[in-house]
Amino acid sequence: MSWITGFLPNRQSPPANTLFNATPLAQDFLTNEMIAFTKSISHPIQLHRKLWEWAFIAHHLKREGMIAPSSRGLAFGVGKEMLPALFASNGCEIVATDGPSDIVKPDWALTNQHAADRENIYYAHIIDRAVFERNVSFETCDMNAISSHLRGFDFCWS
């Protein structure tokens, strides 16, 4: 029995792929899909809201056929998350944005909530450098004044 099954009494195996409710539930972390997602980013399973959010986004975009070559995605407030690398490794073209350094809280960088540049979202264990360079771009974006050129994407997340 896995350590995590202790959080769900009487559960011996992961539930069916029922990812996900609109509110994270402990059982979501035991689904086969969550296990596959955490493996895809080489991350241990943890009962953590941010991990659930990433898996939720990836699940629904994949379900809608958006995680595919030639799909274009836009990330707002990307921080140092792994989704741009993951989606780009599947052939998506990703524009990742984060707030300009002069308007974000200084402690955000200390908690991985702010990316200053594209290098902050490169993960060699997820994506080859050449594929990353080809498929991921980065720019600053004040979400209170989104530039008019950030249009025409197949999907976005924040």
Q: How are the secondary structure elements laid out?
A:
Elements lengths: L31 H9 L8 H15 L8 E4 L7 H7 L3 E6 L30 H7 E5 L14 E3 L1
Parallel strand pairs: 1-2, 1-4, 2-3
In short:
The chain has 158 residues and is an alpha/beta fold. Strands 3-2-1-4 form a four-stranded parallel beta sheet.
Percent of residues in beta strands: 5-15%
Number of strands: 4
Low-confidence stretches: 1-15
- SSE string: HHEHEHEE
Task: Enumerate the strands of the largest sheet in spatial order, edge to edge or round the barrel.
Answer: 3-2-1-4
Helix content: 10-25%
Number of helices: 4
Mean pLDDT: 85
Which keywords apply here?
158 residues; single chain; alpha/beta; 4 helices; disordered N terminus; 24% helix; 4-stranded parallel β-sheet
